[in-house]
Structure prediction request, 538 residues.
Amino acid sequence: MTSSDYLFKISDLEVSYGSIAAIKGISLEVKKGEIVTILGSNGAGKTTTMRTISQLLKAKQGSIIFKGHELTKLPAHKVVSLGISHSPEGRRVFNILTVEENLMLGAYTKSKVDLEILNWVYDLFPRLQERKAQLAGTLSGGEQQMLAIGRALMSKPELLLLDEPSLGIAPILVKAIFTQIRKIAETGVTVLLVEQNARAALKLANRGYVLEVGKIVHSGSSEELLSSKRIQEAYLGKQK
Amino acid sequence: MDIFLQQLVNGLTIGSMFALIALGYTMVYGVMKLINFAHGDLVAGSAFVGLFVFSELLGGQISFAVVLGVFALTIILISLLGFTVERLAYRPLRNAPRLSAVVSALGASMVIQNGIMLIWGPQMRIFPELIPTIIWDIGGVVVSLIQVLIMVLSMLLMVGLYFFVEKTKIGTAIRASAIDQDAARLMGINVNNIIVTIFIIGSSLGAVGGLFIGLYYRGITFNMGWQYGLYAFVAAIMGGIGNIPGAMLGGILLGLFNAFIAGYISSTWSDAFTFILLIVILIVRPTGILGERVAEKV
Prediction:
């Protein structure tokens, strides 16, 4: 594979918390325009991977390359201006700031807030526009997730990292949010999606990786993963 | 009634000073969850630096320009000191357990306090009379020019700070960093720079507070930072630590409370009542008057 084929590549990444290894040498790559998902159960290392990409955690070993830039040498606050935006696990919206202030912070690295993007975010999630003057902490879980994604879009990212957008959200809103994620991807934004909800994630994604206790044990196109016996048993439950 | 109005004026004056100093505690706590014990000593240092700037650097002759110069230079020197304390005492401990940083804060406090004593001696020094003693008698209530200046300037600084924090991009970044540092980093906010910013703002406000203490009380001692720092700390907790309008409100209320106790009961007892008030507030409203109470949806 030549360098022009992928937008983003992780090689032999190792991450530990103290003496406990959380990621034990994973490699993956994402091509421009793809939706790629990382599946895995609790504690598999999905969020750790995401936080290491954003440099909130530092890698012990390995490299993370985005458009020719080595991310592991950067402080966390420099990552977003390269074009990577991270909607973190648990949403992490700024609860005592207003919805609009949250969105403005998403564009913190820009000298001016791009109103076109703001309007696009409001188009994707009209609920946010209705509630823009409200404190983010007063939103429902689903609305907070919309806000977290919208906030991440405000920096006009090329690569969007989504960490468990379905976590703790009413099923009907999960569906709505996933539909909007597809719309976001259709505008050319590359998406790396971490999910426990494997079926929803695979329906959305082009390809997937399966993470188990810090190692990638499976990878392939979404169709392959959906039809694999092992994946069905471990992550999709019984087929109806 | 005369006592009431008189103590109202006195209380607003000392309350303004408490509020200015309390802001330094509350802003640092808001972002770092650390009680910066050195802040009170920075305030005391400011009075001594002001004395030094006036008599050694600016020639000791009072004029409007010299008074402005004393304020400007003292603010710059004290914010540099605050910046240095952050670099040396807190930044190396950024990822250490909370207790280590608290011990380091106490250490920084002692270093500054003893530094003041080594440079300027342990005896009380008299702060120069930079502002002429002009006193008005308004229907039995005595108001001095210094009191008016303290109240007006404090109010202007607090309104300015409020708008800076609420309305500007850096202000929003400060509030975001106070809520969630990791999420702030994901937005591209350099949290280290935010911390430096709040140390400089907090130290500058503390420096003004220290100069006001010098102007108002005149007698300054190397260890007075402990006392004023403690009052301001109580004010910050009363208002809701980490909450900027809360520190302003807490400072003013504490000043008024103190003045009324002194006026109606006895000034000897005002400290005791201050701490009784603190205990009552902590029992009734542990988060302080304006403490965060937004219900968190999970």
Observations:
- The first helix of chain A runs from residue 46 to 53.
- The mean pLDDT of chain A is 93.
- Chain A has one domain: 30-47+80-236.
- Chain A is about 35% helix and 25% strand.
